[in-house]
């Protein structure tokens, strides 16, 4: 099993291609409060498409993040990338208990899981009776390669944290968005969420906080870093630092930033078009953007003009309070990049 402990307090740890993010929430009257938070940058190539390539770098950065945040709980939740997980809806007779269902899944693993069972980490959850036949129950099976889980838990343990849950990125996003839907009383509204990472941007369409459609496009913030590197003759590290800290030459906006934004918006438009032609889905009321690249000034406004929908930064901390011991402005400013981390911290609390 890789959904393990049910600890009362969980620290959400999001290990992306560019940063390690940590956030800890506590339940308070009427909602949640942020009680610890820290972010640390990763060296390029240490994590590629959310898969760890340099364990030493990840452990070093995560250890610094944990030390800086000083979370009250040491129990942490992390997520494997959605593309690394297999999800299946299975039907079994209603009289089978969990042990019997687990045995059936193992026995029939070659039907459901496309890699050798000895390499698999999996979990399953009963979703209730089948609508068309109450003699059967529907079960959600989630599986991935054991190596992916072991890498994440190794990083947590080496950084002084206790692995309590290994989730799937999309499930964490759904959990954070479901809370946002409730707090903003959005009902069953259909909206799009674009999460712009370092190497790709992911379009998710949600109804009532549940993801009903997803599409990834290989274009993200790293392309902007590389464009800065080429245009100004910098090293990649220098370009990344300049992008984060600002202070680039006066032609940066016209020569580098706007071409990047226009190309990124083109990718998003293509993803939206694929959604629209797929059929059977509702029209979208708005689009939300998440991820570190979404914080670029003017991006949301330019995207809105191009796609003809209201666009705004997602704020998974909407309606939450923030402990006075934290830099409230810094946490609020980072919020659009904390969506997955918040969803992980909300396990058992949403």
Give an account of the 3D structure.
The protein is α/β, with parallel strands linked by helices and 350 residues long. It folds into 2 domains: 1-184, Nucleotidyltransferase, domain 5; 185-317, Nucleotidyltransferase, domain 5 (2-Layer Sandwich). Helix content is 37%, strand content 30%. The protein contains 11 helices and 16 strands. The strands form 4 sheets. The chain has a 6-stranded mixed β-sheet with strand order 10-6-1-2-3-16. The chain has a 5-stranded mixed β-sheet with strand order 13-12-11-14-15, with helices on both faces. A hairpin with a 2-residue loop joins strand 4 (47-48) and strand 5. Helix 5 packs across helix 11 (339-345) and helix 6 (221-232) runs antiparallel to helix 8 (252-278). The mean pLDDT is 91.
Describe, in short, the structure shown.
This protein is α/β, with parallel strands linked by helices.
Structural descriptors:
alpha/beta; Nucleotidyltransferase, domain 5; five-stranded mixed β-sheet; 37% helix; 30% strand
Number of helices: 11
Class of secondary structure makeup: alpha/beta
Distance between the termini: 22 Å
Order of helices and strands: EEEEEHEEHHEEHEHEEEHHHEHEEHH
The gross shape turns out to be: globular
Structural domains: how many: 2
Name the strands of the widest sheet in spatial order: 10-6-1-2-3-16
How are the elements arranged and paired?
Elements: E1 11-15, E2 19-28, E3 31-41, E4 47-48, E5 51-52, H1 55-69, E6 75-80, E7 86-93, H2 98-107, H3 109-112, E8 120-130, E9 133-145, H4 146-158, E10 162-168, H5 169-183, E11 190-196, E12 201-207, E13 210-217, H6 221-232, H7 236-245, H8 252-278, E14 287-290, H9 299-307, E15 311-313, E16 321-322, H10 328-334, H11 339-345
Parallel strand pairs: 1-6, 3-16, 6-10, 11-14, 14-15
Antiparallel strand pairs: 1-2, 2-3, 4-5, 7-9, 8-9, 11-12, 12-13
């Amino acid at each position: 099993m890789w959904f393990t402990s049910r600890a009362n307090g969980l620290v959400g740890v999001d290990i992306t291609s560019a940063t390690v993010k940590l956030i800890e929430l506590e339940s308070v009257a009427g909602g949640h409060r942020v009680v610890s938070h820290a972010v640390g940058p990763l060296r390029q190539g240490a994590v590629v498409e959310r898969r760890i390539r340099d364990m030493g770098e990840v452990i070093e950065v995560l250890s610094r993040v944990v030390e800086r945040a000083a979370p009250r709980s040491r129990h942490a939740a992390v997520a494997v990338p959605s593309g690394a997980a297999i999800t299946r809806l299975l039907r079994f007779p209603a009289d089978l208990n969990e042990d019997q269902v687990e045995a059936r899944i193992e026995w029939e693993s070659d039907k459901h899981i496309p890699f050798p069972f000895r390499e698999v980490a999996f979990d399953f959850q009963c979703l209730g009776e089948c609508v068309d036949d109450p003699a059967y129950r529907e079960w959600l099976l989630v599986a991935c390669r054991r190596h992916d889980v072991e890498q994440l838990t190794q990083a947590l343990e080496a950084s002084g944290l206790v692995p309590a849950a290994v989730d799937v990125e999309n499930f964490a996003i759904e959990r954070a968005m479901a809370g946002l839907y409730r707090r903003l009383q959005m009902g069953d509204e259909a909206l799009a969420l674009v999460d712009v990472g370092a190497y790709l941007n992911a379009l998710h369409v949600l109804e009532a906080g549940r993801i009903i459609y997803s599409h990834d496009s290989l274009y993200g913030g790293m392309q902007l870093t590389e464009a800065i590197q080429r245009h100004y003759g910098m090293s990649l590290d220098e370009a990344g630092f300049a992008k984060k800290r600002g202070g680039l030459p006066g032609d940066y906006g016209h020569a580098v930033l706007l071409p990047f934004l226009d190309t990124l918006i083109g990718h998003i438009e293509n993803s939206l078009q694929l959604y629209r032609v797929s059929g059977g889905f509702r029209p979208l009321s708005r689009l939300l953007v998440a991820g570190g690249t979404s914080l670029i000034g003017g991006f949301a406004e330019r995207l809105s003009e191009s796609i003809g929908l209201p666009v705004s930064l997602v704020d998974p901390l909407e309606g939450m309070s923030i402990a006075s011991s934290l830099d409230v402005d810094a946490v609020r400013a980072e919020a659009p990049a904390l969506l997955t981390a918040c969803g992980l911290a909300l396990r058992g609390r949403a």
